[in-house]
Hints:
Number of helices: 18
Largest sheet: 3 strands, antiparallel
Radius of gyration: 31 Å
CATH architecture of the largest domain: Orthogonal Bundle
CATH superfamily of the largest domain: Intergrase catalytic core
CATH topology of the largest domain: hpI Integrase, Chain A
Number of strands: 8
Strand content: 5-15%
Number of domains: 3
Amino acid sequence: MGLILKHVVQTKAGTWHYRRRLPRDVAALVGKNEFKRLLGSTEREALRNYPKVNAEFERVVGDARRGDNSSSPAGATPLEVHRRAELRARELSAMTVHIGGRSLPGSDPDAIDVIRESFLSRRSDEAGEEVEGRAVAILSSGGMLSRPAPTIEDARKLYLEERVRGDINETAKTARLNRAMEHLAGASIGKDRALTSLTREDARNVRDHLERDRNVKKATVRRYINDLTALINLGMTEFGLRDAMSNPFQNLSIRGVDAAATAARDERKPVPEAMIAPLRKRISAHAGEDLWRIWRIVEGSGCRLGEVTGLLLPDVVLDNAVPHINLVPHPHRRLKTAGSVRLVPLIGDALKAAQEAVKAAGKGPALFSSYGRLRGADTASASLMKHVRAITDDPKIVVHSLRHRMEDRLTLAGVSEFDRNLILGHSSGGMSERYGGLDARLKVAERGLKAALGVAGKRR
Length: 460
C-alpha cells in the first residue's frame, strides 16, 4: 500500500479512515474507546485531510482532560452535534470522490451515495459516529436538515462561555450556576428541555421547590431565580428566540422577599465599642503581622476586607498631602460596584499599619503577599474569624462588622449620607456630579473620617 500514516486504515470499499484508540482516562470521560473519521476515498484525499483530523483527535483528548467534555459527542447537546455535523458536511461536500473514471465533488448525488454507503458499512452505536452520521444526513438532504431546538443545557454552556469563563470568580460562579441547574432538576425540569417549552408554571415550580422542599431563605431564592432569569435571557437573545418566547422567570413573585431582605440587614451588627480593645489585643498577639496590619487598616478606614487584602504597592500613596489608598480593580481582585472605585484616606493607626506594610512588602507587587491573590480575602477572613470567635460567639459579629462600626461612627459624627457613601464606596460611582476632582473627593473623605474618628475618640 502506498500510504503509510499512523492510525489510517483502508476499508474493503476502498475508502480511507482515521481510527485511533483513546487513552483509557479519556475513554472513561467521553464514553467511547475509539476515535474514527472518514479521510476520503483516495490516498490524496486522505493525505490532505489527515492533519485536520489528527488535530481534532488531540483537541478531543485535551478538552476531556481539562474537564470540558462538550467537544466530545458524548457530552454534546443535539444542537452542538448538529453544528459540528454542519462543519463536517461542508468538508465532505468539498471532497473529490472517484467513481470509475469520474472525479466528482462530494456534493454530487452519486458521490453522496458513495459517502453514505461508506458510513453505513462501518456504522456503530458509538457516540463518535453521531456527528459523522448527521453530517451524512445533512449532505444527503442538501443542507435542509433542520437544527434541533436550543435546550437549557445549551443556554448553560453559552452562559458559562460568555459570562463566566475568564472571570476572577469563575470557579464560584460556575458552582453557583450548577447549583441553579440542580434546582431545575429538583423541580423535574431536565437540562434537555427546549428553551421554548419553558412555562410560567415551570418557574413557579422551581420557586416552590426551593421554598418548600429545600427550605431556602427568601433572599437566596431570589438570587437563584435571578441567575436563571439571566441564563434564559442570554439564551433567548443569542439563539434568536425573543420572538418565539418570553422568559418565564422574569419578574417572578417571591412572597415575603422584601421582609426577608430587611431581616438580612440585621444579620450583622457593628463591633461593640467595649469589644474593640480585646479584639486588638488578641489579634496583635496571636495573628501574623500581615493580618494584624490588615485588621488595623480595615478598622480605621471602613474598607471591605477584600479591598485591603487585594492592594498592590502602587495603590498605597504615602507621599501625598493626604496619605491614602487608591482602590481600583485588579485581575486578582475586582471591586463590588462602580462606586467602590475611590480614594480612601489613611489616618492614625491605619496610616501606621499601611506604612509598616509598605516597608515589609519590599518590591511587592502585592502589599500583602500571602493574601494579594485570587480568593486571598477568603483566607484572611477565615484566619481573622478564628480570633474574633475567641473573643465572642455572637454570630452577628464578624470581620465585616468593622465596616458597620465605621458607618455608625460616620453617622454619629454628622457626616452626610453622600459623604458616607463617598468614603465607604456605597455610591453609584457618580462622584463627579458633586465633586469635580480627585483632590476634592479625597479632602471630603478625609474630613468625614477625621470627624468619625474624633467622635470615636471621645466615646472611649
